[in-house]
Design a protein that fits this description.
132 residues; 2 helices; 64% helix
Length: 132
């Protein structure tokens, strides 16, 4: 059977590539934030990273860099997961459509149902299936 919806397959792949790029950018941004926090700490000045945050606006040095870097990394990971999930959801919809089309094709009698694989089938196992 021919593959349909080639553009959706491309869009799914594009979402996955964008997700990996976003993850890479988040990791690089988190490293950069930690470095900027460490540099500010050596200068002895309060960190500009946490200046707008009440209660933490006096934090300086590596602590502020690690705190904000961890938050940047967490947001980047969440962004990666959601963007990658969109690509996977598109592939899931395509797989459901493909299986539905194949089932309808075989049930209508237009094609012969392919034989099961010759080796490694669960029917050929000699045990009850409970042994490890």
């Amino acid at each position: 059977m021919t593959k349909r919806f080639r553009m959706l397959r491309f869009v799914s792949l594009l979402y996955k590539v964008i997700a990996w790029i976003a993850l890479l950018m988040a990791v690089l941004a988190a490293i950069l934030v930690v470095v900027v926090g460490a540099i500010q700490g050596r200068a002895g000045a309060p960190s500009p990273l946490l200046a707008p945050v009440p209660g933490l606006n006096r934090a300086s040095g590596l602590f502020s860099g690690l705190l904000v870097g961890g938050l940047v990394l967490l947001v980047g990971l969440l962004q990666f997961v959601f963007i990658f999930a969109v690509g996977e959801a598109i592939q899931l919809a395509l797989a459901i459509e493909d299986n539905t089309r194949k089932s309808a094709y075989y049930l209508s009698g237009e094609g012969a149902i392919p034989a099961p694989p010759a080796g490694g089938s669960w029917e050929e196992s000699s045990g009850s299936g409970t042994e490890l």
